[in-house]
Write the structure tokens for this entry.
Amino acid sequence: MSVQQTYAKMHAKLHDIVPDFELRYKAELADEINRLKKERNAVILGHNYMEPALFHSIPDFVGDSLELSRKAAQTDKDIIVFCGVRFMAETAKILNPSKTVLLPAAKAGCSLAESITAEDVRQLKARFPGVPVVTYVNTYAAVKAESDICCTSSNAVAVVESLHTDTVIFLPDEYLARNVARETGKHIIFPSLMPASVLAGPQPNFIREIDLAKTVDLQFIGWHGRCEVHEKFTPEDIANIRQDFPDVVVLAHPECSPEVVAAADFSGSTTAMTRYVERTAAPRYLLLTECAMGENIAAANPDKEMLRLCSVRCPHMNEITMEDTLDALRYTRYVITVPEEIRVKAARAVERMIAIG
């Protein structure tokens, strides 16, 4: 495919989303990336939060964390380029230890992933011995290695129910934990853990919470991690939008607060939201999630009206650019490594997640 053909393909889908001068420039990048991808026997995975020009031009597969984890596990390519954030690229490496996994950014972190450490998980397991640990896939490899099973926002309820246990430790997203606890009919508490440096000292707050927990049915043990994007949405946002657009259908990601999820018309993973828009015929839609995804859905569904009232961008996802993706392939840059001892333990938790689907 020539640069002009690449541009024509991008223009047909993105002419109402991306300025023409930007499309022409990025078509040149996309053409070179796709050429190098074939030359180096690479596969490119693109998360739903990637900016539209990238999302609709270079990935071989797009989707949410669960879908891309499956594609990573199945690929026969030598190189995996993960256009997402670091924990996603780590997951690809966990599932493909013999392959080269590249992240097109030096860091591309995640507020959720950085809200908890492996030591935090070990401390929780010591305090609640024998209780299975369900860890959201939005975590780093060392945390996954301390877990019994991982989950994504799309299969979190199924994962919890698959354990057939009365009590679960669910980490680290506070809002996802609250939403899953509500959906599964469980009571939830949040032990206040101190930093690792003072774990040996007195912990009166923790003790008070556990004493309180003894008076209720202890079923769900959560953690105070939050997505810095989804925590910004409020029920007031939804109420204000409905005042101007009474017929709007509001879709919220499960990382939003329970109050936001309750006020929305539908809640689901990024893939679930995409399919909801594809399969329904509402007058207009509003997605409460990372803004780029709304633009990507609008480009893929030109017959659907998407309200573009979102101003919340993920700074970590936005570190992934087409320029850096090209350099990742050119220079084999930002290679993801996971120590084998951690990888083997983490792989068990991730593979159990994938098996549940």
In short: The CA atoms of residues 6 and 27 lie 6 Å apart.
